[in-house]
C-alpha cells in the first residue's frame, strides 16, 4: 500500500498535507490513508464537518461508513474548516479509489505564522511502522 512521502500521518490513519501558507494562516488538506480505506472496505457514505466549523486536534470530526463498519474521522490539526470535498456526497467510493488525491475529505485553516502545523505528526516511515505493527 502507498504511503506518500509528501504528507504527514496520524496513528488513527488520517493524512495531512500543507496546501499553502500566508503570513497568518496555513491551509492543511486531510483525508484517510490507503491503509484505512483498505481496512474499511467499500465506502458508501462520508459525513464531514461544515465549512466554518472549528475542529480540535485528535477529536472526531466526521464519519466514514463502509459495507463493513462505521468509523470516526479525527482532526489531524486544529483550526477552522475552509473546504469540504462535496463530490464525496455523490461518490463516496472515491475515498477507496484515490485516497491521496480526489478522495480528500476537508481543508482546515490553521492560525499561526510560519510553523508547519503538521510537524508533530508522523512522517511516512513513522506511519508505515505503525501500520506494520498492527
Number of H/I helices = 4
Largest sheet entry: 6 strands, antiparallel
Mean pLDDT: 95
β-strand amount: 35-45%
Question: Helical content, roughly?
Answer: 10-25%
- The strand count comes to 9
CATH homologous superfamily - what is it? RNA polymerase II/Efflux pump adaptor protein, barrel-sandwich hybrid domain
Distance between the termini: 14 Å
Could you tell me the CATH topology label: OB fold (Dihydrolipoamide Acetyltransferase, E2P)
Q: Which stretches of 5+ consecutive residues score pLDDT under 50?
A: none
What overall form do the CA principal axes indicate?
A: globular
CATH hierarchy, class: Mainly Beta
Q: Sketch the topology as an H/E string, one letter per element.
A: EEEHEEEEEHHEH
Q: Please identify, by name, the CATH architecture.
A: Beta Barrel
Based on CA atoms alone, the radius of gyration comes out at: 14 Å
Based on helices, strands and strand pairing, what is the structural class? alpha+beta
Biggest sheet strand line-up: 1-2-3-9-8-5
Amino acid at each position: 500500500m502507498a504511503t506518500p512521502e509528501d504528507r504527514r500521518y496520524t496513528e488513527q490513519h488520517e493524512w495531512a498535507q500543507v496546501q499553502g501558507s500566508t503570513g497568518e494562516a496555513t491551509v492543511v488538506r486531510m483525508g484517510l490513508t490507503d491503509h484505512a480505506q483498505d481496512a474499511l472496505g467499500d465506502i458508501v457514505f462520508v459525513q464531514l464537518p461544515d465549512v466554518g466549523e472549528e475542529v480540535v486536534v485528535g477529536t472526531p470530526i466526521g464519519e466514514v461508513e463502509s459495507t463493513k463498519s462505521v468509523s470516526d474521522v479525527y482532526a489531524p490539526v486544529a483550526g477552522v474548516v475552509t473546504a469540504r470535498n462535496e463530490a464525496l456526497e455523490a461518490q463516496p467510493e472515491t475515498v477507496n479509489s484515490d485516497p491521496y488525491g480526489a478522495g480528500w475529505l476537508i481543508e482546515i485553516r490553521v492560525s499561526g505564522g510560519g510553523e508547519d502545523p503538521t510537524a508533530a505528526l508522523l512522517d511516512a516511515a513513522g506511519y508505515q511502522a505503525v501500520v506494520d505493527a498492527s
